[in-house]
Amino acid sequence: MAKRKPTKTTAYDSAAYLDSDAAVKAYMEEAVATQDPAFIASALGVVARARGMTQIAKKAGMSRESLYKALSADGNPAFGTMIRVLGALGLKFSVTAVSAR
Length: 101
Fold this sequence. Notes:
0% strand
């Protein structure tokens, strides 16, 4: 039996695919659709990494370290932080009425 070469894998990083405004919009829409605050914050972190964490932190008026911490899987950012980060990313928060369940 011939020896197989081990399969080489690389870690998947969503940020690598967020290379357009349309991709970011679709990604964030899907994240918001989960209604999971931690996932939404984490998704914002992925978008911030895709756009340049240092630049986004400066635009949001916070340190890069604070932004990483707030948008990490264990982070719990304040709503104001989320709004500032959205603005720094060129996004905005909006509300849409849904039918009663």
